[in-house]
Design a protein that fits this description.
The chain has 428 residues and is of the alpha/beta class. The protein has two domains: 4-31 and 280-410, Beta Barrel (Lyase, Ornithine Decarboxylase, Chain A, domain 1); 34-277, TIM Barrel (Alpha-Beta Barrel). The protein contains twelve helices and 21 strands. The strands form three sheets. Strands 4, 14, 15, 16, 17, 18, 19, 20 and 21 form a nine-stranded mixed beta sheet that branches. Strands 5-6-7-8-9-11-12-13 form an eight-stranded parallel beta barrel, surrounded by four helices. Helix 3 links the parallel strand 5 (53-58) and strand 6.
């Protein structure tokens, strides 16, 4: 469910025509619906309201401070995977006591920042990380809460690049090795082991992989308790999928109904880390058609948004619906076209062989379902400034990130004295 629809022939986000934003801010521009974000968060929270549960928004999906500030106000905690994301959470007003730090490669500097900040918990990925965390906590005279991420060797039935719970993936402690690792970690005086953590992948549209992972990990919890470990929390991670095309993911209530019976009577606080589920369908990317280029085998629609703005189609073969901002432009004869960007790569496309009405040069299009892992993965490739971001709240809208300028592209760079005049660079 989202708050985008055609009204009087114009595609609107909540109460704002998207053409108005495109004309005012320019393109490419990301637009987010605040009502959609908060609506999805509340549905998720309501689905788990009858159990002891804490929801942590996964900042990696979309780390816009405006969105995080709204979620913090709504009661969300935060799941971060870098000190940069932690910094954003603090700037957005997120509570450190409701923040968990995950990630397979935390540096000493990142651990130090998080320990000083007094975050709620660390999700540790390995025994070496446990030793490092204990050492740093000892230096600061603190005892920190932590769990281990368990790799249950469960196939999440998602894209190979975003599955994380198989034995060949880099993440977590293999479930067979976990009892020994927990026994060793119990001797670390500056770590309070509180439970277990799972995260088996992203864009998961079935509940069976979650059920299999929960069953396997509850067996581990039973073993750990028999060894004297005080297991208090069960962090199931995130990864719940959304509709991009023809997917049929479970609703929040259906997801809760499928997993909660497995956890009933276990005396474990449930932690959940949704990201895409909350923000994925809340965003569109506005882009303008530069040229329509007929070729021998197909027609190319060249737009001003490229793979530097939206890399998911290139990286994952991901599908994103593309629609015109004027409803009548949907009514033309449908033909198969490639919607491509201006980047100097053949892999620079937003859609291939897409059946749609041929848009005209100068018209604007909206790329749908880009709220998660889109702007967050954008870059300055080809020295292109990153897009602007706009937040719509009812009939009002706000620029929450200005478009990067040419000066932004070179900010932080220097030319050492003498380099431009060096004899090495002179033409012979």
């Amino acid at each position: 469910m989202d708050l985008y629809e055609y009204r009087r022939g114009a595609l609107c986000c909540e109460g704002v025509p998207l053409q108005r934003i495109a004309d005012s801010v320019g393109t490419p521009t990301y637009v987010y619906s605040l009502g959609t974000v908060l609506g999805h968060y509340r549905r998720f929270a309501e689905a788990f309201a009858d159990v002891d549960c804490q929801i942590y928004y996964s900042a990696k999906a979309n780390s816009s401070m405006a969105l995080m500030a709204a979620l913090a106000h709504a009661g969300a905690g935060f799941d971060v995977v870098s000190a940069g994301e932690l910094y954003r959470v603090r700037r957005a007003g997120g509570a450190m006591g409701k923040t968990v730090f995950a990630g397979v490669g935390k540096t000493d500097a990142e651990i130090e920042v998080a320990v000083r900040a007094g975050i709620q918990m660390f999700n540790m990925e390995s025994w070496p990380e446990a030793l490092r965390l204990n050492s740093i906590a000892r230096r600061f005279g603190k005892k920190v809460r932590a769990d281990f991420r368990i790799n249950p060797d469960v196939d999440a039935h998602t894209h190979a690049h975003i599955t994380t719970g198989r034995s060949e993936n880099k993440f977590g402690v293999p479930i067979a090795e976990a009892p020994e690792v927990y026994d060793r970690a119990r001797k670390l005086r500056h770590i309070d082991l509180v439970g277990v953590h799972l995260h088996i992948g992203s864009q998961i549209t079935e509940v069976a992989p979650y059920q299999a992972a929960i069953r396997k990990t509850l067996g581990l919890v039973k073993t750990l308790r028999s060894r004297g470990h005080d297991m208090r929390t069960f962090d199931l991670g995130g990864g719940m999928g959304i509709i991009y095309d023809r997917e049929r993911p479970r609703t929040a209530r259906e997801f809760a109904s499928a997993i909660l019976p497995l956890l009933h009577g276990q005396e474990l606080k449930l932690l959940l880390e949704p990201g895409r589920f909350i923000v994925g369908n809340a965003g569109v990317l506005l882009t303008r058609v530069i040229y329509v280029k007929p070729a021998a085998r197909k027609t190319f629609v060249i737009v001003d948004a490229g793979m530097n703005d939206l890399i998911r189609p290139t990286l994952y073969g991901a599908y994103h619906a593309i629609v015109p901002l004027r409803e009548r432009e949907n009514r033309g004869t449908k033909r198969r076209i490639d919607v491509v960007g201006p980047i100097c790569e053949s892999a620079d496309f937003l859609a291939k062989d897409r059946l749609m009405a041929l848009p005209r040069a100068g018209r604007c299009l909206a790329v749908r379902s880009v709220g998660a892992y889109c702007f967050a993965m954008s870059s300055n490739y080809n020295s292109r400034g990153r897009a602007a971001e706009v937040l719509v709240d009812g009939k009002q809208w706000h620029v929450i990130r200005r478009r990067e300028s040419y000066a932004d592209l070179v900010r932080g760079e220097t030319i050492p004295p003498g380099v431009a005049g060096s004899s090495r660079g002179r033409r012979g």
